[in-house]
Amino acid sequence: MPDTDxxxxxxxxxxxxxxxxxxxxxxGSFEDYLNLVDKNPLAVRNAWQRLYDMIRSHGHEDPVFPxxxxxxxxxxxxxxxxxxxxxxxxxxxxxxxxxxxxxxxGFGPEKRVILLHGPVGSAKSTVARLLKQALxxxxxxxxxxxxxxxxxxxxEVVDSPMHQEPLLLIPMESRAPVLERLNRNVRVEYSLGLxxxxxxxxxxxxxxxxxxxNGDWNKVISHVRVKRMVLSEKDRRxxxxxxxxxxxxxDSTELTGDxxxxxxxxxxxxxxxxxxxFDGEFNIANRGLLExxxxxxxxxxxxxxxxxxxxxxxxxxxKFAQTSIDEVIIGHTNEPEYKKLQSNDLxxxxxxxxxxxxxxxxxxxxxxxxxxNRQFLESxxxxxxxxxxxxxxxxxxxxxxxxxxxxxxSLTLQQKAKLYAGEMVSGFTKENVKEMKASATREGMVGVxxxxxxxxxxxxxxxxxxxxxxxxxxxxxESGLRHxxxxxxxxxxxxxxxxxxxxxxxxxxxxxxxxxxAIASDQEAIDRLCSKYLDNxxxxxxxxxxxxTAGRQKEPDERLMRSIEEKIEIPxxxxxxxxxxxxxxxxxxxxxGTIFNYRENERLCRALELKMFEDRRDTIQLTSLVSTVxxxxxxxxxxxxxxxxxxxxxxxxxxxxxxxxxxxGLFARGEAKDDNAEAA
Length: 680
What we know:
This protein folds into four domains: 29-360, Rossmann fold (3-Layer(aba) Sandwich); 365-504, no CATH class; 520-617, no CATH class; 621-680, no CATH class. It contains 28 helices and 17 strands. It is α/β, with parallel strands linked by helices. Residues 672-680 have low confidence and may be disordered. The protein has a five-stranded parallel β-sheet with strand order 8-11-14-4-15. Strands 1-7-5-6 form a four-stranded antiparallel β-sheet.
């Protein structure tokens, strides 16, 4: 039946999966649960093991080369269709996953707080949010199923207030054979365990019934019903978030629960566990994950609770003994707060119980631009066209602010950014890049955040400009630096302004090359020029004559060869070496049975394009664009260039016209400089 023939109620009803609802609301006796876990032992995993398996369930990409980090699928935000995908942080995220793996295996991290540390806007909160959302979704799957229990006593139903694992009801002396059986039936890299004791409420009913039945455990357990548990932050079940407030208003009961004064009157004592609300963040996050937002802003008293929760896996509610918990605790903090922690000797115990994982800013332009593409292009938030390279050049500037000046004298800061983006720079290898990153430990921990770039792009979006160019965004970035709230150091502000100029020059080089390519876009003419050049080089290397079009022999055309080689800065003293190397390379290609393609040689291809542009620039008279009068013939040629920019480089007519006007001005200024130099 087509949708048009059905009512909205029909659509709503058919979207409800009755079978799925039944699975998520499974209910059974304790014996039913034992039979269930006998078939599926992974249901009794602890929080660290479940979180690690959840991450693995989303898959990963193996390292592209030895020593490279894995790329974990979870952090591409598969549940949100990539809305919160994290780009360029594969290394710290892989380190986080390996820490969780070690904790799942019981190697020590399970007794620590995971501390995500980095500058503002570096995706720390996003990492925590992705983990929480995915863990919640995982608990709804068959693979991620977990269970809790409730007491049915004297017509009263009381849930385990901390959603504890039902197997904790097994007496301590009987746990070992049960665990041995479960571990024998499962093939994972960790061992299943059963640590801790019942929470105070469950302990109360357990002892009450043991007394009633004179220690008959089987009768006691008949009052227990086991049920499926779905983690949910909104329902405060298995996933918690704690955010510090003003120190005067902070109360540790927000973490460990508090007395219910109405029930004290009912039960007659404030030490009766039924008169206590086990609704602190530690309590409700049991079996799952607890996020501490800006954890180092916590009052010292809170941090003591945190130490016990991590090291002992226990908390101390008021009026009650230590209560077992099973949860992963992840906190995050920024740079200033962490520096305060390092300088505070009283916090040594906390430092000793944390595993710090740096979450820096992006250092790859390619990954940085993906952030803004997702934010503005893919989401459709651009209210007007953005010229090619607009977001790319903003990303370049952002990365330049985050990396240190290169130690190598022949490497520029922009070239270093290219290397970090995986591009090739002559004379440098991947090993060099690894050494650079290893020696620059502060890179990515300083610089501008993506939020500042996004705010500057937003400023451009509300302007009256018909199209947003890279220059518009750079102007907005520079203007915002004057009143940037996070930059108080004038030296830093001055450096960022200088880097704006570096980015502007890089942008000018990009658009100049595209205009040059559009002018020299006759591939057949470039092919002929290449063939002519190679014929002359071959004759020069072999000390032979070359045949001209009239069939006469003559010396190789030195002027032609040098006019091309000078475009890629081959000095006079190196021309012989370059030509011999080129001929040797072509010979090697032929020996392998393939044909030499100059387009695969980036330097030679660039030299030929520049030569072709030089030969044609005067005939097209691009600089006449800055004039108020353009003759029809020149206008027609410029129209052809504009069409090529649109067709081959992704411009629209408006942005192509702007680029042509701007590049024309650059050429005009360049020619004026040349004339002045000759006059001098």
